[in-house]
Write the structure tokens for this entry.
Amino acid sequence: MSLMITDECINCDVCEPECPNSAISQGEEIYEIDPNLCTQCVGHYDEPQCQQVCPVDCIPLDPSHQETQDELYQKYLRISGKA
């Protein structure tokens, strides 16, 4: 699954630079995660880095973008050009 940022986001700016896929960007009101780029850090780290640094715990799984670990890895390969 891709991750998402909820309305509890305080725009603290710590998640965006942690994303190895550049999936996080500033939206109109809060940061947003592009589900086409989010791999939950699969291929880079053992855990999603944005979740690790978020001070308000507002980055849950996005139920509208369900993916298996293998699908996330395949997405990582495509994004990184290693496919």
User: Anything to note?
Assistant: The first helix runs from residue 49 to 53.
